Amino acid sequence: MTSPAAARRARQVEERRERIVAAARELAEEHGWEAVTTRRLADAIEYSQPVLYGHFPQGRTEIVTAVALVGFEELAAELSPSALGAAGTDAERVRALVTAYLDFAARNPATYDAMFLLSVVIPFASDDTPAVVRAGFDAIAGTLSGLESPPDDVATAAEVLWGSVHGLAALYRAGRLSAGNDDGRVEALVRLVAG
Amino acid sequence: MTSPAAARRARQVEERRERIVAAARELAEEHGWEAVTTRRLADAIEYSQPVLYGHFPQGRTEIVTAVALVGFEELAAELSPSALGAAGTDAERVRALVTAYLDFAARNPATYDAMFLLSVVIPFASDDTPAVVRAGFDAIAGTLSGLESPPDDVATAAEVLWGSVHGLAALYRAGRLSAGNDDGRVEALVRLVAG
DNA sequence: ATATGTTCTCTAGCACTGCTAGATCTAGCG
DNA sequence: CGCTAGATCTAGCAGTGCTAGAGAACATAT
């Protein structure tokens, strides 16, 4: 049933889908999400607007969600034990985790917004939570459970820690933290968790 | 120079300004910020759209900012020592602060969004930070400095605690925390700060 | 190689958005 | 009462997300 022509075609469709997502992300990181319009996206991939809806029937919000999912994939990778290096004292491990998280948010501000501000569509903490999203949470929980003196309730502690770093990232992004004290805040948070 | 007619007029203008802000807030809490359009606001106050721009030359974003400022005023009031009751153990005081904060966010989701997500216009942690905004931060810092065993660096600790509660509020709002464990998270956070 | 029918793609347009220029009306002053 | 200054409205612009229907291109079967 899958003729060679159909296979090639499917490959082209998939490639075009990724070009849409990449264009959306680039446009967002460059000029903010309000600059990501269907017309500009169509221009970027050199097709007309309706083509976008062939790939993303739910339209713009679905494209934002796709960018968010890519972001979760990258974040989970950067928080994985292999990326962080699982050695050192408890404080060092927590510091590595927190720093990696905040770095990601600072390096990909628009993508981070898509992940946490814009796409409320993605189900969390439920059975059909995408695997990549769960992986990010698992990385945090994994770091906590691997500590020499782990918290009693790892799941709850992981949610609180996630909230804390997300809060710092969000306030930082909004310019609502005093400048030049980034390390001080990280250190204070690390000491709270692994102090 | 200020004739009685002009004084009455000024009062009417101020009253209409407040009606705009109230309508925006109500509309946002009821149907979300995307439902807050200049046409609907004009309808609500029974004037035409251009009237809005007489009050808020910068347009819609300035109206959102006005709602945010009202929100900061209310939040500061609810976090003040007189509202919290400054007695009890360290854990009790921190718990009261955290709970009051999260309650406010849960009760006024759209207003909270205006304060932290939408209006990046408000300058923070700078000399021209509005007094009401600073008051919220001061309430957090005040609670921390009033503890029996206060943190070394109150300002930094207050920023971290603000980030933590904001993060929990944001993740909760986005439906990204496991359901039914609100108290557990609060307790875990309280123990981190005053444990 | 050609006709066929499906599948894809584009043009054009709708209803909506924030915002503004210019006409119109109203209200206060002399 | 007449006039002027100010407030207010009507109408419209450029842009948004999204979609129906016309048109082109393509793989398939003869």
Automatic annotation (TrEMBL), chains A, B:
Keywords: DNA-binding, Transcription, Transcription regulation
UniProt domain HTH-type transcriptional regulator MT1864/Rv1816-like C-terminal: residue ranges: 94-185
Domain HTH tetR-type: residue ranges: 20-66
Keyword Transcription regulation: yes
Taxonomic superkingdom: Bacteria
Gene3D superfamilies: Homeodomain-like, Tetracycline Repressor, domain 2
PANTHER family: HTH-TYPE TRANSCRIPTIONAL REGULATOR BETI, HTH-TYPE TRANSCRIPTIONAL REGULATOR RUTR
Name of this protein: TetR/AcrR family transcriptional regulator
Species in which this protein is naturally found: Isoptericola peretonis
